[in-house]
């Protein structure tokens, strides 16, 4: 067994692996259940331009910073920050960015795996033709029967465990045989499947409807709220603040061009989100059945109901959720890496045992989120379930705090000469832009995002009946990323179906009379996160 703090955490063997692994880390559920909605209500193609500007000028520099920290140190984020702080002679408090980022990755993965269990189940539900001629009420019944049916939590736990086994199985085989081989197959396969489904939706649906919603330029729909929406989505969709980019930078080969690869990743992430939006709105045969839909309601209710209208819907629905499964699987594999890397460097344990131990810990932590939908649904602290507090803590505090620490450290603690050395061969103009973005722009912007997110989240608990002390204050904070006058949530608002009355049937449309639909995942469960 290697000694503590001297473990070689591994390396990719091909320079292109960094690109494929990074695409797998960035393309997540937000590309499917959030971006199409935002583009459709915030000006279509104009919102895409705003979003790209936010990515390239603001969040891409932070991605580059995390990646070069890992590459320079050849360690995960904890030891990378530890070494950098010592070299720069700065306060030891900056080291907090390391363990906080690992904690954020651990917590986000714990509830991402719960979503993965739902998606895995839906692959089989689609193949079994459970959504044949499904109505919104019946589709809601399928979701609630799986997630929050009294006494049915064991089935949900089985799907959750099955998904975690898939994730741990890849990680336990090592960086090359597990992570590199899997992501080099999984990510291109998912992209090819998406292209096939897009071609199918364009030929059997209404591509003009998708273009109108996603690509058409609508200046009247663009305002200050559109800019805020673009900033929020750009920040939370790229996996920042969780040590993913540091560990991938540490794994990258010496001849991998990190900055060029990350630029390609950002563009690929945007392209996937656009294709997802075009695909979804094209299959909406009436042109409006997905309007105003996002989040759980879009992915697990409205989309299956819409796809059920197409020929061979059984195969199409199964293929769509297989695509979603591949996306969530790649995201989960990426999120586990910072935790496994930290555990190996902390203990010197072998790769296989590190993956199994951390995977079991993630699975156990995920049970808290899973039980929040069923067994513990009635147990709330300050008006929120355990799952809701975990999501708010990671999205509103941990991730922005880590990003703020890294940006401030890079901008104010590193000398320009030292920063230029870790950045590598970079044009002087690009290096100057990076320096001032890290020094002035990102700290202010990230702090604003974190404060807006947290304040609105706590206010939203008051709207849901919380009697917490902060609910006694007059005046509700402004929605940090408002969409319409009637929306009360940013990241994943509730669908009309998920907040409606008790469904009439179970997965077959019959007999779920004792399961309230409001216990299913809805808009009040998730505001925003990077899965």
Written account of the structure:
- This protein has 531 residues and is mainly alpha-helical.
- 66% of the residues lie in helices and 0% in strands.
- The protein is globular, with a radius of gyration of 22 Å.
- The two termini are 34 Å apart.
- InterPro entries: Na/ntran_symport, SNS_sf, YocR/YhdH-like.
- It is a multi-pass membrane protein.
- This is Sodium-dependent transporter.
- Keywords: Membrane, Transmembrane, Transmembrane helix, Transport.
- It is found in: Membrane.
Give descriptors for this structure:
YocR/YhdH-like; Na/ntran_symport; transmembrane; mainly alpha; membrane; globular; disordered N terminus; transmembrane helix; disordered C terminus; 531 residues
| Largest sheet report | none
What is the succession of H and E elements? Answer: HHHHHHHHHHHHHHHHHHH
Question: What percent of the residues sit in helical stretches (DSSP H or I)?
Answer: 55-70%
Unreliable residue stretches: 1-5, 481-518, 523-531
- Gap between N and C termini, in Å? 34 Å
Structural class from helices and strands?
mainly alpha
Helix run count: 19
Molecular shape: globular
User: pLDDT average, as an integer?
Assistant: 83
- The total of beta strands comes to 0
The amount of beta strand, in percent, is under 5%
Radius of gyration: 22 Å
Protein name: Sodium-dependent transporter
Membrane topology: Multi-pass membrane protein
Region (Disordered): 479-531
Subcellular location: Membrane
């Amino acid at each position: 067994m290697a000694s503590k703090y001297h473990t070689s955490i591994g390396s990719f063997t091909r320079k292109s692996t960094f690109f494929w692994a990074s695409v797998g880390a960035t393309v997540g559920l937000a590309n499917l259940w959030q971006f199409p909605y935002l583009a459709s209500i915030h000006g279509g193609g104009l919102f895409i331009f705003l979003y790209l500007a936010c990515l390239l000028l603001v969040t891409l520099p932070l991605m580059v910073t995390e990646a070069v920290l890992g590459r320079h140190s050849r360690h995960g984020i904890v030891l990378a920050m530890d070494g950098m702080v010592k070299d720069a002679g700065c306060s030891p408090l900056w080291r907090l960015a390391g363990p906080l980022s690992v904690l954020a990755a651990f917590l986000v993965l714990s509830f991402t795996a719960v979503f993965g269990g739902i998606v895995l189940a839906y692959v089989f539900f689609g193949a079994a033709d459970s959504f044949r001629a499904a109505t919104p009420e019946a589709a809601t019944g399928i979701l609630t029967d799986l997630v929050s049916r009294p006494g049915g939590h064991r089935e949900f736990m089985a799907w959750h465990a099955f998904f975690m086994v898939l994730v741990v199985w890849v990680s336990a085989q090592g960086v090359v045989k597990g992570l590199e081989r899997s992501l080099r197959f999984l990510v291109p396969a998912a992209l090819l499947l998406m292209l096939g489904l897009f071609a199918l939706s364009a030929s059997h649906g209404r591509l003009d409807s998708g273009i109108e919603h996603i690509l058409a330029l609508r200046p009247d729909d663009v305002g200050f709220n559109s800019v805020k929406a673009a900033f929020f989505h750009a920040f939370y969709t790229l996996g920042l603040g969780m040590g993913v980019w540091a560990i991938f930078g540490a794994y990258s080969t010496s001849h991998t061009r990190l900055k060029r690869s990350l630029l390609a990743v950002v563009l690929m992430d945007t392209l996937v989100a656009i294709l997802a939006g075009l695909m979804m709105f094209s299959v909406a045969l009436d042109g409006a059945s997905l309007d105003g839909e996002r989040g759980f309601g879009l992915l697990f209710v409205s989309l299956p109901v819409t796809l059920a209208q197409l020929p061979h819907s059984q195969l199409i629905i199964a293929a769509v959720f297989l695509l979603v499964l591949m996306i969530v699987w790649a995201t989960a594999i990426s999120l586990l890496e910072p935790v496994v890397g930290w555990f190996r460097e902390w203990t010197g344990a072998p790769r296989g045992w590190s993956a199994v131990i951390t995977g079991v810990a993630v699975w156990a932590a995920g049970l808290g989120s899973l039980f929040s939908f069923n067994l513990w649904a009635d147990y709330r602290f300050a008006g929120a379930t355990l799952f809701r507090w975990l999501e708010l803590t990671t999205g509103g505090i941990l991730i922005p705090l880590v990003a703020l620490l890294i940006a401030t450290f890079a901008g104010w603690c590193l000398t320009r000469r030292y920063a230029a050395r870790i950045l590598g061969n970079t044009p002087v103009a690009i290096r100057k832009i990076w320096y001032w973005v890290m020094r002035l722009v990102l700290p202010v912007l990230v702090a604003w995002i974190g404060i807006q997110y947290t304040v609105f989240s706590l206010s939203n608990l008051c709207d849901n009946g919380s009697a917490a002390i902060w609910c006694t204050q007059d005046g509700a904070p402004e929605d940090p990323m408002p969409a319409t006058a009637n929306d009360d949530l940013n990241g994943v608002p509730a669908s009309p179906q998920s907040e409606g009355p008790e469904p009439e049937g179970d997965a077959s449309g019959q007999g779920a009379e004792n399961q309230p639909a409001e216990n299913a995942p809805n808009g009040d469960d998730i505001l925003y996160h990077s899965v």
